[in-house]
Design brief:
Chains A, B: One of its GO terms (molecular function) is acyltransferase activity. Chains A, B: It comes from Paenibacillus montaniterrae. 2 copies of one chain form a homodimer. Chain A is of the alpha/beta class. Chain A has 2 domains: about 170 residues, Peroxisomal Thiolase, Chain A, domain 1, CATH 3.40.47.40; about 150 residues, Stage V sporulation protein AD (Peroxisomal Thiolase, Chain A, domain 1). Helices cover about 35% and strands about 20% of the residues of chain A. In chain A, helix 2 crosses helix 3 and helix 6 packs across helix 7. Chains A and B meet through helix 3, strand 5, helix 4 and helix 10 of A and helix 3, strand 5, helix 4 and helix 10 of B.
Chain lengths: ~350, ~350
């Protein structure tokens, strides 16, 4: 494959006609609080298990994204979603409620943009009229599955990231208000040999850079064409690495227009979130909340969301494998932008 | 959504230009032995862990599907794959070898046709020129993850199914020899309340029936239009249930043209495989081996492959949840068939 053949350019650009974001208490303490539709005041989300808590977040986000535009699930021909849990069980159960065609996807924390890319492609080509993309994560479902039982209260090193609790959903249609989806760049798996699951930002940074470069090449653009290029969840360790790698590759990235959802969602210095946020919902709730608002208000004209994922499993790293990483990018354009 | 809006009809029909299938020793004892490209004589696949064994199967299947047509991964613009393992780790690692854009998907044992449907859509619409779909499973990676440590040698009830060991891959392009892909029907999650993970055939049967009916309605076809309608892995318990449900819904299914990959792959009465085969590779290796051969030889003209998946996780059933199920169907047409 030639470099720069990773991008689907949408000839008919679909629109994100509705979004919804629901988060937990830690995210409600962050600077993006007002951009979320609903913030729960307790991590249990009034459910009896962490898994049920995550499911409730996703269920409510998907329902709200529909009801905001007086739609029901029956108005959609596809639901594409995924999460971090084994067998993406949160999405499977929410798809059961929706009762519409369902494609389950897994790209770890890149799932948000993987799902949006697929829905946009299906809408753009007319395979479906309307579709919904969503992703979810919960701090405690992720902790218990990937690390230790939550009751341990195990300490983590400062390079570790804090899985955000939340869910984000987006309804996509060919016609309608809302930001247009110009293109999607599908990432390749990049693995430079990092084996420490407590340093996923560093592991994921090269994947983000690979996808950003592929996107710019495919679109014949430079970083200046975007008001904001935002990575998914590289956080405090990974994001500066990505900046360095881009500059080393002669990509003129302007750090004031290059940010990270995992850094934006928390008050990093004041909240106990180690290096910053992560999780499949991290890029989902920042994109479908704050970034959508800014695009709709005209504060941002073009944004490239580069969701990053660490494709490890507990078994793979226990067996000594390094961490394969990936990043999928979606280019969004505000209303009226040519 | 109206009934019958689940199908992507491909205006430009892509072709399966190459396939490869690799299996383990149990599958080599079954009636389809000669249709597989390679049969391993030991379940360990000459590797040191079950996970590495499964990865080797998928790695070799994807390589072989390419080399049969003198292609390399660089000739592809997309790889879509999934498996049963947590975080679909087998596919993540194989995607790392391929170094091309990758969409990870999860539909349990329906993954094979979920992946093929997505690749076909991308090729048909010109988003990519060539792509590959694949799926894998290994009896022992599945056993240790979903049931008990393999060392226990735990007994299973006769309704249980036997996860097949293998991997199947298909290369899809717009032009070329090989069966055409006419359409793909994306399933909805169906859950009639079965909670027994040792009876997944019965749990999945209603999902298969739902997708078959949607497909026939969407395509304005009857079962007679297909020489073969084949479910993924309903096996000895689930397949007769699907037949009964179809007849109850007034679908004139002819049982001599209605079969199941999980029944076809083994000599059910002679091999110790309980109710029959299952696993993401089950429908993949039967479709990409035996069915491809029959389509290429003109013995079968039209085939509908209905891959079925049980979307449970060990945590979900331990928490008392029932088993959400899904089925994705792909319609294949032999060379020269109008």
């Amino acid at each position: 494959m030639l470099a720069g053949q990773q991008t689907w350019k949408f000839q008919r650009q679909p629109h994100i006609i509705s979004t919804a974001t629901i988060v937990g208490p830690d995210e409600a303490l962050g600077p993006l609080k007002d951009s979320f539709d609903k913030c729960y005041d307790e991590l249990e989300i009034y459910e009896k298990s962490w898994e049920k808590a995550e499911r409730r977040l996703l269920s409510e986000a998907t329902s709200l994204a529909l009801s905001k535009k007086n739609l029901t699930a029956d108005d959609l021909q596809i639901y594409v979603g995924g999460d971090l849990l084994n067998q993406i069980i949160t999405n499977n159960f929410v798809a059961r409620e929706l009762k519409i065609p369902y494609l389950g996807v897994f790209g770890a924390c890149s799932t948000s943009m993987e799902a949006l890319a697929i829905v946009a492609q299906l809408v753009s080509t007319g395979a479906v009229k309307k579709g919904m993309a969503a992703a979810s994560s919960h701090n405690c479902t992720a902790e218990k599955q990937f690390r230790y039982p939550t009751e341990y209260g195990a300490q983590k090193p400062p390079t570790a990231q804090y899985t955000i609790t939340g869910a984000g959903a987006a309804v996509v249609a060919l016609d309608g208000d809302g930001p247009a989806i110009e293109a999607a760049t599908i990432g390749r798996v990049i693995d430079l040999g990092i084996t420490d699951p407590f340093n996923m930002g560093a592991a994921m940074a090269p994947a983000a850079v690979d996808t950003i470069i592929a996107h710019l090449n495919d679109m014949n653009r430079t970083p200046k064409d975007y008001d904001l290029i935002v990575t998914g969840d590289l956080a405090r360790v990974g994001h500066p690495i990505a900046t360095d790698l881009l500059l080393k590759e002669q990509v003129p990235i302007n750090t004031t227009h290059f940010d990270d959802c995992g850094l934006m969602i928390y008050n990093i210095d004041d909240q106990q979130v180690e290096a910053g946020g992560s999780g499949a919902a991290c890029s989902a709730v920042v994109t479908y909340g704050h970034i959508m608002n800014e695009l709709n208000k005209g504060h941002l004209r073009r944004v490239l969301v580069v969701a990053t994922g660490a494709l490890l499993s507990p078994i793979s790293y226990q067996q000594g494998e390094s961490i394969p990483c990936i990043a999928h990018a979606v280019a969004l354009k505000g209303k009226g932008v040519e």
